[in-house]
Design a protein that fits this description.
By secondary structure, the protein is α/β, with parallel strands linked by helices. Helix content is 57%, strand content 12%. It is built from seven helices and five strands; from the N terminus they run H-E-H-E-H-H-E-H-E-H-E-H. A five-stranded parallel beta sheet has the order 2-1-3-4-5, sandwiched between helices. It is globular, with a radius of gyration of 17 Å.
Length: 200
């Protein structure tokens, strides 16, 4: 019984990835171009998310700075989820905790930068505020979400990118988000360094 349940997780995850490949390839390619335009013109990527999505934001920033699967020069990226002092300062000072990422975006973001937002529901108040702050700074916003994209999808402009995984289950959405981040990283490397097979 337990083994069957485990196998079903693999089957469901594989099915969703197969179905999402066609739907998501165009917005992922658009996100690659947005990140590429940003980093090649001296800009940076700011990434944020809540809970497990915070870890994914940190992982993407690490891929940019430390590299993905190939050696290349460092790309400027920062996870807004990494500084516990900043993240808890709002609560300690009686400030609006929903502004925790927006404050960082306003402090660090510049025109031409990219804000990468990860959210399963697309309805997190602090992520909505961050996207609004990015627009104030004339940044491009790339959103990875699930379902229909929630309130974040409604905030986006024509120059922004929405990558919305067509599924309701959080675990499945996060699994695809991880793959999307790998595709983004590989896509940027391929554009910078040329196409090549990655050795095993």
């Amino acid at each position: 019984m337990l083994e069957q349940r485990i196998q079903q997780h693999f089957i469901d995850s594989a099915d969703l990835k197969y179905q999402a490949a066609q739907v998501l390839s165009h917005p992922i390619a658009a996100a690659v171009q947005a990140v590429l335009a940003c980093v090649t013109s001296g800009g940076k990527v700011l990434a944020c998310g809540n809970g497990p999505s915070a870890a994914e934001a940190q992982q993407f920033a690490a891929f940019c700075v430390a590299g993905f699967e190939r050696e290349r020069p460092e790309l400027a990226a920062l996870a807004l989820t990494s500084d516990s002092t900043l993240l808890t300062a709002a609560a300690a000072g009686g400030h609006d905790a929903a502004q925790q990422f927006a404050r960082q975006v306003r402090a660090l973001g510049q025109a031409g930068d990219v804000l990468l937002v990860l959210s399963v529901t697309g309805n997190d108040a602090n992520l909505l505020a961050a996207a609004e702050a990015a627009h104030e700074r004339d940044m491009t916003v790339v959103v990875l979400t699930g379902r229909t994209g929630g309130k974040l999808a409604a905030l986006l402009r024509e120059t922004d990118v929405l990558i919305s995984v067509p599924h309701d289950r959080s675990a499945r959405v996060r699994e695809v988000h991880a793959l999307v981040l790998h595709c983004l990283s590989d896509g940027v490397d391929a554009q910078l360094l040329g196409e090549q097979e990655i050795p095993l």
